[in-house]
Predict the structure.
Amino acid sequence: MALLEVKDLKVRVEEREILHGLTLTVNEGEVHAIMGPNGSGKSTLSHVIAGKPGYEVTDGQILFRGEDLLEMEPNERAAKGVFLAFQYPVEIPGVATMNFLRTALNAQRKARGEDEYSTPDFLKKVREVSKSLNIPQDMLKRGVNVGFSGGEKKRNEVLQMALFEPSLCILDEMDSGLDIDALRIAADGVNALRSPKRAMVVITHYQRLLNYIVPDVVHVMSKGRVVKSGGKELALELEACGYGQFEDAA
Amino acid sequence: MKQVLPKADPERASGNVFAAARGRLPGAGLVPQIRASAFEVYERTGLPHRGMEDWKYTDLRALIGEVLPLAPRPDAEALVRAKVSAEQVSADQAVKLVLVDGIFVPELSDLGRLENELVVRSLREVLENSAPGDMAGLVLSTTTDSIISLNAALATDGLVITVADGNAVKRPIQIVHVATGASVSTFTRSYLQLGKGAHAAIVESFVSAERASGYQANDAIIALVGNEASLSYIRVAAAASDAVNISSAIIAVGARAKLDLFSMTCSGSISRYQGFISLAGEGTKVSANGVNLIRGELHADTTMVVDHAVPHCTSREKFRAVIDDRGRSVFQGRIVVRPAARKTDATLTTRALLLSDQAEADSKPELEILADDVTCGHGATSGALDNSLVFYLRARGLPEKDAKSLLIKAFLGESIEEITSENLRDFVTAQAEHWLQAGR
Ligand SMILES: Nc1ncnc2c1ncn2[C@@H]1O[C@H](COP(=O)(O)OP(=O)(O)OP(=O)(O)O)[C@@H](O)[C@H]1O
Ligand SMILES: [Mg+2]
């Protein structure tokens, strides 16, 4: 059974259809890249998978390990292993990052019927993960993303991904706003999570990220549909020729 | 509670209350005379009404209509109920002093644990032993506010606490007001004096016992904070949901002193907390903060007047309100900077979080600046929870209610974190969490 199956998905936002029948299948262990021009619906797709309110699904299905994802609350999806690294992570003043990480992790574990982490185990885990991502401890004492630079926010998303160990990671423009070193560190973090049991959907505009996180499949999205899928060489082709040819196709 | 009360004649109604209560009110020497003239001041306006600027959002005449008869002395059965409630609000390590229906009850209090650094007497004792020229006039002092005058006229008991020069009281003193009655009123008044360089923390809690309902509590505290002294004052009001709580604080702070005040109102049909803080000595720092937590049809009004009379003082005020259902929160903050008060640094912010479409927040900040070379500012905002933050937390595994609670706690934290004592901060946080839990 596929890990994620999006079938003929149609989505409206404020009376306007954004996704016009999108189909995508992702199996365990695979890395998929989604590329496509601005406004083609990439973030919309990621939001609908994560369960963000405000989107009306008018047709189609999203199955996660065969279960209907659209019937689940966002927190249930998270507990089942769906993780979205946001294109624009929000700042949450007054909620210390450490407290947030712990509350979120334990909420997911509780929902799965697992024991909550003890304080020492949790701290140990956070310390390991943040060290590997080059995130200083005092950043974790601050409010969630508050005063973080663009790159720090993105690294914080990867930190959460590493901590929650989801089975489906959707990375929405993880590379935007990262400098070259930060990009490599974050990509290493993502690669460390690659496993036969885990799949990734990497949304990006740039081939460069895909040099670090090498995809099994590349999809081109245009005007709310997947208009072409291929191997990693498709990304190179896009980089060379742009989206023009596909926009006509869509 | 809000409508249908007989609109008869509020002054006459409370006139009867005073006449009926007179025989029971403690006080020797000049006290009866002080009470009678305080009552006269009250009678000039009667219950405050919306025609009065300071009461325009909280029209007591319309909201409560009349002053209910004075509560009887609590009997043994009432004390049993009171004990249960008083125990539920104990602050960690605090020495508890319990007033039930306006009467100090030594049996429920921790008098044995009082430190030697302070002297505690009941108001009754002070007034009964009052000779001309002693502190009765000070303890029963009033302002032009009619509700404070009514309190002076009718106060049955309270605590008179003095901390001598240089003394530091280690454990917080917790004054617990328990209401056990139905459709009665209570009048309590406490007096606090911190000598030069003295330090104390006072917690005042208002709670209701089982079966208490529809009562009106009117409390006043007069505090004098000496030069170089520091006072932490925390007030938590959780009246019965159909009860009225009106509390007034009149605080004068000396030079190079510190006042750290926090007020939380989390229940009660109609609440008014009014603070009058005067900075009377140079180089003093006042931090006055608070939160209103409101749901149902409750109405909570916090009104603060911070009066800078001398140069080089700082005042900081942060008030937050969380309002659900059809609740209404009022915040009025006036900062007065008198002509002599150069180099005053005063700020005030109020923020309201509206959890329902019908929730209402009224905010009225006022700056009255009569001096040059001052830094003063205020800001007021109100709005709903940010949905994108709620979603972020849900996407990370938090159920919607937990996500909202976490954000509400963070919002309240902006004010609660100003409490300097960690112990008291935790106490207030726990009460706020309790309120959040109760709404789920
Ligand atoms: N809440 C909204 N209200 C109205 N229109 C919306 C809303 N959200 C998205 N859209 C529209 O839907 C379309 C797709 O947006 P989306 O953010 O999914 O694009 P994207 O492919 O992620 O673009 P980018 O590469 O710029 O991130 C855009 O035209 C956008 O304006
Ligand atoms: Mg996008």
About this structure: Chain A touches chain B through 28 residues (CB under 8 Å).
